[in-house]
Amino acid sequence: MVAQAFINVFNPYCLFLIWFGTMIGIIFGSIPGLSATMAVVLFLPLTFGMEATNGIALLVGLYMGGISGGLISAILLKIPGTPSSISTVFDGGPMAERGDAGRALGVGILYSFIGSIIGIVALAFISPFLAKVCLLFSAADYFSVAVFSLTIIASLSGKDMLNGLIAGLVGISLKMVGMAPIDAQTRFTFGNYQLLSGFDITVLLIGVFAVTDIILTGFDRKHLSDRFQKKGYNLKGYGVTMKEFIEQLPNALISSVIGIAIGILPGIGGSTAGLLSYTMVRNTSKYPEKFGTGIIDGVIASEAANNAVIGGSLVPLLCMGIPGNTVAAVFLGGLQVHAISPGPLIFDKSGQYVYGIYFALIVSSVFMLIFERLGLPIFVKLLDIPKHILLPIIMVMCCVGGYSAGSRVFDVQCILFFGLLGLLFKKLKVPSTPLIIGFILGSMLEENLRQALQASHGSWMIFQQRPISAAFLIVGVVSVTWTVRKNLQEKKAAAAKGEEVDTSEEEG
C-alpha cells in the first residue's frame, strides 16, 4: 500500500495538482478575509471527477498553502491573513516596522515548514493512540480546556491586567450576539435580523487589526507619503544563523507539540494553538519583556504551532471521522465523495489513500518552503509602495474580504464598527489581544458549559469529578497565580529601582 501510494502521489499530474493547490492556498491565505477554508470549499467541486488520490492531493495543497500563507499579510501589513496567524502579528509586525520584514518572513516560512513536518510525523506514527485519548474528552473537559485557554489573557495583558480582563469579557460578550447554542434563543440582536448569525471572526480580525491601524496612520498626515522601512532583501537562507536555529529548536518543538494537541481536540483551531504556544514560550523565556517588540521567538512560536495543527486536525478525522476544525470538516466531505470512510478500519480498507495523504502533505510542505522563499523579494516589494497609495488599497481589500466572509454588506459595516472599537481601545490603552481571545473561545466555553450542566442535571461538581477537567482547571489556576505573582514582583522591583534613583538624586 505504501509503494502504491508513493507511485500515485509522485506522478507528474498529481505533483502538478499539489503545486497548484499550494500556490492557490498561499494566495488565499495571504489576502485578509479569504482563508484556507474558502479555498478548499471553492475547489472541492473540481475534485469530484478526479481519481481519488489526485483529488485529495489538490485539497491537501490548498489546506497547507492556505494556513501558511497567512503569515505574509500578518507580517507585512499587521493583518492576520487567516485567524491562525493572529499571534504572528505580535512580533512579525514590529519586525516589519523597523525594517526586518524579509527576515521575519524567512523565519516564519522556515518554521512553518518545520511545524508542518512535525505535525505530519505525529499524524503518521501516533495518530491511533492520540485518537483514543481524544475519545476520553467530554463536554466538561472541553469547558475546562477553554477556561485554561482563557488564562492566556492574564499573560498577554501586560502590567494592566484589569484592562486585559475587561477586553476579554467584551470579546466573550460579542460572541454571544445572535442565536444561543443548544436552544437557539436570540440574544443582543435588538430586533436586527442581521445579527441573528452573530459576528464573523474574519470581520472582527480585519476591523481590529487592519482598519484601526489605517485610521491611526491617517491621523499622522505628515508621514502618509513615506514608504515603509525595509531591509533584508539579500537574505542568506531563511534569516537565521545555525546558532539561532539550534537555540530555537526547543521553541519549535514545544510550539509544534502544542499545535498537534490543539489540532486533535475538535473545534479549537489554529488561532488558539498559536496564542497558547506564544504565551507558553513567552512565559518560559529568559527575556519575556522583549516579546511584542519584534523578536523571532514570537514568530517561530506562532508559525510552528499553527502549521502543526494541520497534522493534528487530521488525526481524529482519519481515525474517528471527527473533523478537528472547519477545513478538516470540508476535507471530510472530499473523502466521502471518493467513497473513503474515515474510522478505525480506514487503514485496512483505504490504506493507500491514507498513505497518499501523508506523502501529499510532505510534498506540499516542501513546495510551500521553496516557493514562499522564492517569492519573498516580491512580498517585501509591497513596502516600496507609499502609504498614501497602499493603505487605501488595503482598505478596499478589507471591505472585499469582509463581504466575502458572509456575502453581506452588513459585514462591511461591522468592519468599520470594529475598527472604531479598536481605535477606542488604543486611546484608552486597553489591549486588543484579549478581545480576540475572548471572542474565539466564547462559543466553546458557553456551548460545552451548557452541555456539561445538562448532562449532570445542573451539578457543577462534574467539572471537579472528571480527572481531565480537574487537571486543566488546576493548571489554569496555577497559570493565573504565577502570572499575577510575576507582575507584582516586577512592580515591586520597578518601585524599588525608582526609590534608589530618587535617593541618588537627593544625595547628588
Summary?
73% of the residues lie in helices and 1% in strands. It is mainly α and 508 residues long.
Molecular structure report:
This protein has 23 helices and two strands. With about 500 residues, the protein is an all-alpha fold. Helix 4 crosses helix 5 and helix 5 (about 90-95) packs antiparallel against helix 14. About 75% of the residues lie in helices and about 0% in strands. The radius of gyration is 23 Å and the shape is globular. It has helices at about 1-10, 10-30, 35-45, 50-75, 90-95, 100-135, 140-150, 150-155, 160-175, 200-220, 240-245, 250-265, 270-285, 295-320, 325-335, 345-350, 350-375, 375-380, 385-405, 410-425, 435-455, 460-465, 465-505, and strands at about 180, 185.
**Helix vs. strand class:** mainly alpha
**CA-atom Rg in angstroms:** 23 Å
**Got a strand count?**
2
The number of helical runs is: 23
- Roughly how much helix do the residues carry, as a percent range? over 70%
The protein's oligomeric status is single chain
**What share of residues are in beta strands?**
under 5%
Outline, from the CA principal axes?
globular
The overall pLDDT average reads 81
Tell me the distance between the termini.
82 Å
Order of helices and strands: HHHHHHHHHEEHHHHHHHHHHHHHH
Biggest sheet strand order reads: 1-2
Task: Quickly count the domains.
Answer: 1
Low-pLDDT residue spans = none
Largest sheet: 2 strands, antiparallel
